[in-house]
Specification:
3 copies of one chain form a homotrimer. By secondary structure, chain A is an all-alpha fold. Chain A is built from 8 helices and no strands. The longest helix of chain A is centred in the middle third of the chain and has 25 residues, at 86-110. Chain A is globular and about 50 Å long. Chains in contact: A-B, A-C, B-C.
């Protein structure tokens, strides 16, 4: 199925982007592989652990681990070339976001979860990998920094869930949800659309420890 | 049951305190919601994942997610007002600590866990949410910084477990454990009682990499 | 069984090394215990959660928690003496690495996992505790910083898995894998053998946000 192929390409792309982040921090080759695998597979893993959905995808099909490891190692070789493909990788990251989100919704729906959990499962699958990458790189997660990223995931998940619930054919719903999600993300990148931020500076600063 | 009502109020309060922490770091609205939900529900989630106790509470009853999300968003509106209620929120946080601790003990006891695991389950439920908040905010967890917080959780868990084991009625034990735990935490806040710290500075500093 | 005794000694040693790290950050006594327990037991816990292998070892045998907590607290008393035993603890850490790795392989093989998952399970068991310690201490994981540590774990896991698969007696395979793994790690410490690093500095720095 086409969805499966796009899924694997997105896994590799996420792993490569994370490998670059590892390179920027001068990690060793092992760290590069770990960061690639955790970023690419961490969202689905977190979803499965939270839903109690065993075995995990990469435990059942270890080939996924090989794909993400190989992609991370390959990045060490082609890092210089990737700079010229910055936009390509930004768009592949957007593809990954919508594909992972939909795959997360699928898992939750197969388990018979209610609407809210399906959407949350989709968002976890789409977004948590990047959060784990940032925590391991000792950064505040980029996900919380205003970019229209999680919102795209939420919209994609809603489109998919309610489309399926409304009885439309699964292939059509998948394609439409992916197209709209991808389009939104591309617009957000192109026009630098941002979420509003909550800026809170305590007036009496000295008394606020927590 | 009254315990359930206090539980939900404490969830909302924890989420609101975390939302303020997000605002201090200028996170976007989505980040505010995630930090609120993770802080409020992260302790119970960690306990359930470690004990293999599925489904998670917020997967079974997604209404909890709505409460914590709404509380976090509400914080954006009322942040200025909350400054005048600092003490109220510090006390609500103390209520959350003892209520979450006891709820964690209940779950572990229902599973028939031994004493030590019941107490650890209570402490995980009471304390881990704040640790996750600090990790996501890229801070060293406040929990390890001397405040009498985890100790209060441990004492509350012991009181509850041994009270129930001794055959006292559950309602009485719950009320007494909550009252003593809350009182201890209030005293710790009022008199700034702190845990002793382990201050270790290597003599031959240059040779200590790890 | 001898393996079991070495396992418990290694648990205590890992907890003590982590307690020193806590002392360097002036954590309180509770933080010292938590960091000790998480570092010593975190690798096995992560493996079991990812493989869905319940109950966790320390939930089934809470005595492990007592060992790691006691070791962490004991460190507060003997920290000054431990400086003279730096090499001993570095070697005990190497013992822990190979023992934990092999114990992780054993669990995965009992579950009938394929080769790659057995090796990954061994590496997770051997290495993740230190990663959790570094995340809680708000550091970039030392594991990704070039030291020949995870590689030793991978080699030990391969030796064990393929040795057992080849039909050699389990005791022999365990001893040989431990000896070679420990020897490699000792050589890496003695000669400061390092993994190559992936150093990536974007040419057009201003355009690289991610």
């Amino acid at each position: 199925m086409l969805f499966q192929i796009i899924f694997v390409i997105a896994l590799a792309a996420e792993s490569m982007t994370a490998a670059l982040a590892a390179g920027r921090r001068n990690m060793d080759w092992f760290g590069v592989c770990v960061l690639g695998c955790v970023t690419a597979l961490g969202g689905g893993t977190t979803r499965d652990v939270l839903l109690g959905h065993y075995p995990l995808i990469w435990v059942e099909q270890p080939a996924y681990l090989l794909v993400t490891t190989a992609a991370a190692l390959f990045t060490i070789v082609v890092a210089r070339v990737m700079e010229w493909l910055k936009l390509t990788f930004l768009l592949l990251d957007a593809v990954g976001l919508v594909v992972f989100t939909i795959s997360g919704c699928m898992v939750a729906m197969e388990m018979g979860q209610p609407a809210l959990i399906v959407i949350v499962a989709g968002m976890i699958t789409g977004c948590v990998g990047g959060v784990l990458r940032d925590v391991l790189c000792n950064d505040v997660p980029l996900l919380f920094a205003g970019e229209l990223y999680a919102t795209v995931s939420a919209i994609t998940a809603c489109l998919y869930f309610f489309g399926i619930q409304a009885g439309f054919p699964a292939e059509l719903v998948t394609i439409v949800a992916m197209a709209i999600g991808f389009g939104l993300r591309a617009l957000a990148i192109a026009f630098k659309i941002e979420m509003p931020r909550f800026v809170y500076a305590p007036v009496r600063d000295q008394s606020s420890k927590r």
